[in-house]
Every structure is written in C-alpha cells, then in structure tokens.
Automatic annotation (TrEMBL):
Protein family: Belongs to the FMN-dependent alpha-hydroxy acid dehydrogenase family.
Name of the molecule in the record: Lactate dehydrogenase
Lineage: Bacteria, Pseudomonadati, Pseudomonadota, Alphaproteobacteria, Rhodobacterales
EC number: 1.1.2.3
Source species: Actibacterium mucosum KCTC 23349
UniProt: glyoxylate binding residues: 28, 133, 168, 279, 282
InterPro entries for this protein: Aldolase_TIM, Alpha-hydoxy_acid_DH_FMN, FMN-dep_DH, FMN_HAD, FMN_hydac_DH_AS
One record GO biological process: aerobic respiration
PANTHER family reported for this sequence: L-LACTATE DEHYDROGENASE (PTHR10578:SF85), S -2-HYDROXY-ACID OXIDASE-RELATED (PTHR10578)
The organism's place on the tree of life at top rank: Bacteria
Claim: Isomerase is one of the keywords in the record: no
Signal peptide: none
UniProt cross-references to CDD domains, sorted A to Z: alpha_hydroxyacid_oxid_FMN (cd02809)
FMN hydroxy acid dehydrogenase domain residues: 2-382
GO MF annotation, one: L-lactate dehydrogenase (cytochrome) activity
Length: 382
C-alpha cells in the first residue's frame, strides 16, 4: 500500500504522526524546554525571512549537490541525531540509517538512541556519524567511542549544549520514561494507538541501546537512565575537549554553537565542522533563533571549517534560508521524525524527498541553478 497522497508536507506528516504514535512519544519529539520560547522563536525567525523572487533566467538544470566533509551528497542535508527514534518506530535508528544511506545523506546516530551502534552495523552495515556527549565517567565515553568505531562511524559529532538537562514540561507531565513505564496513564495512551503497540512487538530493543552493555548485567533500565542523567560533563574545559579529540581517530564536528566566539573556540579545538544549533529549542529557553545566530558565525569561521545548522526546519525553503545565511548544509531533526511517526521508513523517506523537492523549487523561483547561487541578498527581512 502506497503513502496517503494527502501527506503533501511536513505539517501533514506531523499531524499524522500525532494520531499514530502515543502522546508521550509525540510530545517528546514535538516539545521544547520550559516555556518553549526558543522552540517557537526558531520558527518565527524563519518565517520573518522572505525569499526574493527572481525571473527571466535559465533555471532549467538545477543542481542541489554538494560535499559534506568530502562526501558527495545529492542535497545539503543530513539526519540530525535524535534520541529514542526507536520508540517512534521499531528499530527506528537502523531503519533511518538505511533510508539516509539510500538517499546518499549522512546519518548521525544519537548517544541516547534505542538501537545501539552495534545494532546499526548488524542491521544496516553502512558508514554513519556518531554523536556523543562527553560523560564524567571517561571510561564510559571511551566505551561509546570504541563501539562507534567498530560499528562503522566515520565522524564524531560532539554535542556541547547539554551540560545539564533542561526540563521539558510535556515529558514531565506525561511521565515519559525509558523504557515506557506501565502506569494507568501510559497503558491508556498505548491502548489508543494499538497499531503502534503491535508494531513495537517487533522491536529488538525498547531501552537505551548504547548504554546497555556498559553497566553491570542486571542493571534495570530505569536505574541506567538515572545514572546516565548524572553523567553529562558540565566541566567542558580545554582538557575535556582535548581528551576526546585525542581519543577519536577521525574528523570531529562540534554541535551546539550559537556565537562567533564559541565557533572560534571550536575551530581552535580542531573541529572540522560545527553545527549552529540550539538543540531545536530543547535546552536553553529564551534563547535566540538559530537562523539569527548564523550570519555572524558564518562570517567568523565559514570557509575555514564547514558550517552546518539546524533548528526549526520544516520546509525546503527553510533550508534555502539557512544556506543563504551561510550554512553549508542542514541537519533535519523533527521533520524526519514526523515522517517516521506518520508512516515508518517510507514516511521518513517521503519527508526527506519533500524537503529536497521544496528546496529545488525555491531555487528555481529565486533564479538559482546551484547551491553557490544562493546568497544573502536573496532574502528580505521585514
Ligand atoms: C526528539 C529529539 C531528540 C533529540 N536528541 C538529540 C540527541 O540525542 N543528541 C543531540 O545532539 N541532539 C538531539 N536533538 C537535537 C537535534 O539533533 C537537532 O539539533 C534538532 O532536532 C533541530 O531542531 P528541529 O527538530 O526543529 O529541526 C534531539 C531533537 C529531538 C527533536
């Protein structure tokens, strides 16, 4: 059975995902921290930027391809690291890696994933990028890096904007826990989505895959999650970053940069790429939109290292806005998860294709034939 033809944009995929997966999981994907003001600011700032219509030029052949850390990609996109993807759809991370690989796009595996890095090697067996948090327990961090290396990770993405966990009210109210705890509320929630519950019976895992092998056998998943929550290193000194840089033999990307000063620091630390990101509004509440932070950062380090960006992208025109403001490529977070939640791997594939097609149309109507034609003067801010 093909996809519902009414799923014509990310908004429709989001709505379908809302109806198809339990509320606690949808809210985990959809929500932001505290008042969700950074979450909404990401969107408001993107909407404020108008694209300039340009006509009477030859836009018959458009080329969306570029290179991301030396890899040729058909579009300036990659999949953002997102925790718990394997609860949105069974074996979600393995399925997502397969889709990204088919589309020729890099996939970044989250430390807080459900499938482990080893599961990726077993289920997909293709190269990918691994996202890590620096943990207080360096043996634990090294354990994660070793698993990443042996399972085919080529590039390490170090996320630096989660030195403490910000609260997401929706998760607290829903009592979200991993694995999902059976309470009256969660059972009711699951019962309203029997299709999801049935599908999840096929899941290889329902707990944190990357953590499972480190703690002594028999450690309950709840206590594992509690322990990990205390592990995020708040002391991100030069020594800490230097330690992880030396522990990883391969390219490094630093994710969670919002100022030119921090971008410069990341370059000095030896990063080959940075991700301008506010974690999709899930960490610092009351923060600036990523799209507004980007120009000064691109001016500071663009050309020296690759500059990637994310947060708030729901259309291909949004990707256009990020590229016009200096990004080399974008990470796709919730838009991909809405696709997965709406229709599994086929929905994810559809979400990525929609974004790509929308970017292509935005380029044609602004008179661009290649990504290098996308410049800041094609944006109007009112
Ligand atoms: C459900 C969810 C889980 C996430 N988990 C992680 C994670 O484990 N590591 C990380 O670096 N970023 C994580 N992020 C942030 C994303 O990588 C990305 O920065 C963000 O989703 C971009 O915003 P957008 O979803 O509005 O596009 C997560 C985001 C979401 C929505």
């Amino acid at each position: 059975m093909g996809l519902d033809p009414r799923l014509t944009d990310i908004v429709a995929l989001r709505e379908r995902a809302r109806r198809r997966i339990p509320r606690a999981i949808f809210d985990y994907v959809d929500g932001g921290s505290y008042t969700e003001s950074t979450l909404s600011e990401n969107r408001v700032a993107l909407d404020r930027l108008r694209l300039k219509q340009r006509v009477m030029r030859d836009v018959s052949n458009r080329d969306l391809s570029t290179t991301i850390l030396g890899q040729n990609v058909p579009a300036p996109m990659m999949m953002a690291p997102t925790g718990l993807t394997g609860l949105v759809h069974p074996n979600g991370e393995v399925e997502a890696l397969k889709v990204a690989h088919r589309q020729g796009l890099p996939f970044i595996h989250s430390t807080s994933a459900i499938c482990s890095a080893d599961d990726l090697a077993e289920g997909a067996g293709v190269p990918y990028w691994f996202q890590v948090y620096i943990m207080k327990d360096r043996d634990f961090t090294r354990y994660l890096l070793d698993m990443a290396k042996r399972s085919g990770a080529t590039t390490l993405v170090i996320t630096v904007d989660l030195v403490v966990n910000a609260l997401r009210h929706r998760d607290a109210v829903n009592g979200l826990s991993v694995p999902l705890r059976l309470t009256g509320r969660s059972v009711l929630d699951g019962m309203t989505k029997p299709g999801w519950a049935l599908r999840m019976l096929r899941a290889k895992r329902v707990g944190f895959g990357n953590y499972a092998g480190y703690l002594p056998k028999g450690t309950g998943t709840q206590s594992m999650a509690k322990w990990v929550a205390t592990q995020f290193e708040p002391l991100l000194t030069p020594e800490a970053i230097g330690w992880i840089r030396d522990a990883w033999d391969g390219p490094i990307v630093i994710k969670g940069i919002m100022t030119p000063e921090d971008a410069r620091l990341a370059v000095d630390y030896g990063a080959q790429g940075i991700v301008v990101s506010n974690h999709g509004g899930r960490q610092l509440d009351g923060g600036q939109a990523t799209i507004d932070a980007l120009p000064a950062i691109a001016a500071e380090v663009g050309g020296q290292v690759q500059v990637y960006a994310d947060s708030g992208i729901r259309t291909g025109a949004d990707i256009f806005r990020f590229l016009a403001r200096g990004a080399d490529a974008c990470l796709i977070g919730r838009a991909a998860l809405y696709g997965m939640g709406a229709a599994g791997p086929a929905g994810l594939e559809h979400a990525l294709t929609l974004l790509r097609n929308e970017l292509d149309v935005a380029m044609a109507l602004t008179g661009c034939r290649s990504l290098s034609d996308i410049s800041p003067d094609l944006l109007i801010q009112d």
